[in-house]
Design a protein that fits this description.
Helix content: 25-40%
Length: about 500
């Protein structure tokens, strides 16, 4: 869009606004408050559509209702109005024979975008449209700005008296309220998000889990390898970080014996890049269960996702982009090293030095550097050569010890840990461990992380002395799992970007 076009758009928008402000004055002259306090609505559009679905075309009833919603289209000089509420659309038939002369004149002051309450009887037009034959109406909120429209002139707007789907992605995310008004698909996605979260909770409650809450403000970043946001508490005069993960606080609750099964649906914050699958603030679920290991966590993860899909979509076979994905358990399991060997022919299990691992990665044209350890090199090769191929759900198991500071050492191979990440459509959606419960081993892992941090790794963890202290009181064998709710919603709503499933995604500041 050129600067001139932008100025023209702003000018046209302001012209429309001034016209509508004039209509406000005309309403006031009639003694009408355009922003009243309440309206006695007794039916929704969807309720009426269902109740009268069998009413024949051309039939009228004496049944009367009060409905309210936003005006989305005006046709035939106001005789037909499309009214949309949060459940759907219903047509308003507004004729002066029913409304009366004065009301009909006032109707001319209504614009697309206004929120109006109508009272009248039910009829179905000869063309088959269920309608309210209005006998009265009440202005509930006068809209001063036009809804998103491809046309910018008032003349075109008056000709069309309708709206167009918002296609400006910048406006779509910055002014989500407009996107929600004009795009049913956005409303459907965010409603499904709410239902998905409800069903996640429902599944876990049915399995005997209890929901808990842990702090968002931490004295040090912990629970994941990520760069935190920092802030300062004035009264205590100390720096704090926003939570990057709830893990260590949740495991403190497990040490205390609050319950054998706990979970938290948490908002987390990571000061990292933004792309189609990452937003600086995001929602995740973390759960912990006593006396189980990562094998039980695999079963729980796939059963949870399958349950939610079935409850929300009515099926465990979903479409994402060009792929049909079958979420029906059980899901495939592959070791990380085995998956790399399958795709590249290189067996990192037989590579014991960092130098040789580095050389093999370079031969595969994977970007690595000489500061990386064996586990980080293996992870880099996996992410580039294997991860994009994992479309159907699979648990990738047995991660290197160097990149898994909170997982138990694998019982059969001390270079690895009992950790898995669940991949669907090439993404990680879950990360789980046989939780490390040995306080001495945990201290050694933290020390290695602290050394990495001192050497410039901003995402490495620090030593959490209080958490080690908690472990020294004893943590029972525990399985833990974390899952990204935003990515789960993306999968179950076929959404191409995380911005589509977060109501207000983080965006670069825009100059006014």
């Amino acid at each position: 869009m050129t600067e001139l076009e932008t100025k023209d758009s702003v000018s046209a928008k302001e012209t429309i606004r001034q016209t509508r402000i004039q209509k406000l004055a005309e309403l006031a002259d009639k003694g009408i408050n355009p922003y009243p306090y309440q309206f006695d609505r007794d039916a929704s559009a969807n309720e009426l559509q269902k109740k009268y679905k069998d009413l024949p075309a051309g039939e009228e009833t004496s049944d009367s209702y009060s409905v309210a919603g936003r005006v989305m289209a005006i046709r035939n000089s106001g005789m037909f109005i499309d009214l949309m509420d949060t459940t759907g659309k219903i047509q308003i038939f507004s004729h002066k024979d029913n409304l009366g002369e004065d009301n009909f004149k006032t109707l001319k002051l209504i614009d697309i975008g206004d929120i109006i309450g109508f009272h009248g009887t039910i009829r179905r037009t000869p063309r088959g449209e269920l309608s309210i034959k209005a006998v009265s109406f009440k202005v509930l909120s006068k809209s001063l700005l036009p809804l998103p429209n491809k046309q910018i002139s008032e003349e075109k707007l008056e000709q069309l008296k309708s709206y167009h789907t918002m296609s400006d992605t910048e406006t779509k995310y910055r002014q989500r309220y407009l996107d929600l008004i004009v795009n049913e698909s956005t409303r459907d996605t965010l409603r499904k998000r709410s239902l998905i979260i409800q069903k996640v909770r429902e599944y876990l409650f049915n399995q005997g889990f209890i929901e808990v809450e842990t702090p968002m403000l931490h004295t040090q970043a912990s629970g994941a390898n990520a760069k935190p946001f920092t802030t300062h508490h004035n009264a205590l005069d100390m720096d704090l970080t926003l939570r990057i993960a709830p893990e260590l606080h949740l495991k403190r609750l497990m040490v205390g014996g609050l319950n054998d099964k706990i979970f938290e649906l948490s908002r987390c914050f990571r000061n990292e890049g933004i792309d189609t699958r990452h937003n600086p603030e995001f929602t995740m679920i973390e759960l912990y269960q006593s006396f189980v290991d990562y094998n039980e966590m695999m079963v729980l993860t796939e059963n949870l996702v399958a349950y939610v899909a079935q409850e929300v979509l009515g099926t465990t076979k979903i479409q994402y982009g060009d792929h049909e994905i079958d979420l029906t358990p059980p899901w495939d399991r592959k070791t990380m090293l085995g998956a790399i060997k399958e795709m590249t022919g290189i067996d990192f299990a037989e590579i014991f030095t960092v130098q040789e691992a580095f050389q093999k990665a370079r031969e595969l044209h994977v970007e690595v550097d000489e500061t990386m350890n064996w586990g980080q090199i293996v992870d880099a090769v996996f992410e580039e050569k294997v991860e994009p191929t994992l479309i159907q759900p699979v648990h990738i198991i047995d991660y290197p010890r160097e990149i898994s500071p909170l997982a138990k050492v694998h019982r059969d191979n001390d270079r690895l840990t009992e950790r898995f990440e669940t991949r669907v459509n090439g993404w990680e959606i879950a990360n789980a461990f046989s939780e490390l419960t040995d306080p001495i081993d945990q201290r050694h892992r933290f020390e290695a992380q602290a050394l990495a941090k001192a050497n410039g790794d901003e995402e490495a963890m620090e030593i959490d002395e209080d958490y080690i202290n908690a472990l020294e009181y004893g943590l029972a064998p525990t399985g833990g799992m974390g899952m990204g709710i935003d990515r789960l919603v993306m999968l179950l709503t076929n959404s191409p970007t995380i911005r589509d499933v977060i109501a207000f995604p983080t965006l670069k500041k825009q100059d006014n």
